[in-house]
Amino acid sequence: MPYFIHADLDAFYASVEQLDHPEYRGKPVIVGGLPGDRRSVVSTASYEARVFGVHSAMPIAEAVRLCPQGIFLRGTMARYREKSGEIMALFNNFSPEVQQLSIDEAFLDITGTEGLFGPPDVLAERLKEQVRKESGLTVSVGLASNKYVAKIASGLSKPDGKTVIPPGGEEAFMLSLPVSKIWGAGPKTQELFVSYGLKTCADVRGLSEETLASIFGNAFGLFLFRAVRGDAAAAFDEERGTHSMSAERTFDFEIYDTFAIETALFDICQTLMWRLLDCRWQSRTVMVKIRYGDFSTESGRETFETPVRTLNELYDRLLSLFHRKYRKGRGVRLLGAGLMNLETKTAYQTGLFDGGLKGPDNRERRLEETILEINKKFPGAALKRGRLV
C-alpha cells in the first residue's frame, strides 16, 4: 500500500529570520512589510506573533495595531529559497520521490522504505530530527496512505508536530474535522458551507453526490464527496481536460510592495505546479496577467525550449516575465499566471547529450532527469536526485 509524508516547515520565513538573527528568537516576528507600509500584507508571522492574532494575508497596518511590539521585516526571498533548497535536499535522503509543493512544503513517497528506515512513524521522527539538526528549523509532518489526507494531517499538530493516520483510518480522520480543514475549499466555498448549515465533514458526508453537485457544481461536488471520505482526492482543478491552466489572486487593496507581490506570485506558482504534477502534464509556455487599480491590464507570455520541471523553475520564469511587464510604481490589484499549450509528459523526450540547454542550472536539471530515469529502471540503484532553488 502506498504511504506518504507531507512535510511542512513551521512559520518558514519568520523562522529563517529568527535563525539568522538570534536576537529575534522568542519574539514576535512579522515578515511582509514595515510599519507605515500601508499597502503591504503579512507573508508569515512567527508563532509568538500569532498569539496576538496576526496571520498571513493581514494588512501590515492591522498587524501593527495588534502587535505594536512586533519585529517587522520586508523579507528576503533569495535567502528563503536558499534555505528551502537545503531542506529539500535533506528530504531526498529519505525518499527517492520528493514532490516539492511550495517553498516550505513537500510530499515524500515513503512506500517500501521500511527496510531502510523502519516503520513510517520512525522515519518521520528521523526526518524531523535531521531537519532540526542540519538546518536549525522545525518541520511538522502528516503521514497517510494518500497525499490529500497527509497534507491535512500535517497542519493539525503545528509547530514541530507529527500526525499519523493509519491505513484504513482515513475516513474516520476526515469525519472528525470541521469543514474549515478541507484542503481546496476556499473562502467562497466556506461561505456556502455556512449558508447550508454544514459545519463538519460529517455533515458533508451525509449528503449524496447529487446533492453536493447541485450546491457546488459537478466537479467540486465530486471532489467533496471523495474528500470527506478520505479518498485520494486531488486538489480541485476546474480546468482539467483543457490545454491551459491558470490561477490568480485578487487583493483587497492595491499592492505596491515588491516582496508582497513576489510572495503572491510564488503562491500562485504553488497552485499551478500542484495541478501540473497532479495531472501529469507539462508546459513550455508561461503567462502572466497584471491588473492595476484603475482596471487597466498588462499581460504577456513566453515560450521556452524546455518544459517547466520544478516549482522554482516555474517561479523564475514567471518572475522574469512579470518584471518585464510590470509598470513600476503602480499598485497591483490582481495578479494572475498560467501555463499554456499543455502536453502529456511523454510528448517531450530528453537525452543526456541534447545540446539544446545551456548553463550550469540546465546541466543540473538534465542530470536530475537522467538520475530519475535510472532509478525508475533500476529501483535498487543508489543514485539520488538533487534539487535546485
How would you sum up this structure in a few lines?
The protein is an alpha+beta fold. The chain is built from 15 helices and 14 strands.
Can you give a write-up of this model?
There is one protein chain. It contains 15 helices and 14 strands. It is of the alpha+beta class and about 400 residues long. The chain has a 5-stranded mixed β-sheet. Mean pLDDT is about 85; it is low at about 235-240, about 345-360 and about 375-389. It starts with a strand and ends in a 12-residue tail after the last helix. A hairpin with a 4-residue loop joins strand 11 and strand 12 (about 295-305). It has 4 domains: about 5-140, MutS, DNA mismatch repair protein, domain I (3-Layer(aba) Sandwich), CATH 3.40.1170.60; about 170-225, Orthogonal Bundle (DNA polymerase, domain 1); about 245-345, Dna Ligase, domain 1 (2-Layer Sandwich), CATH 3.30.1490.100; about 360-389, no CATH class.
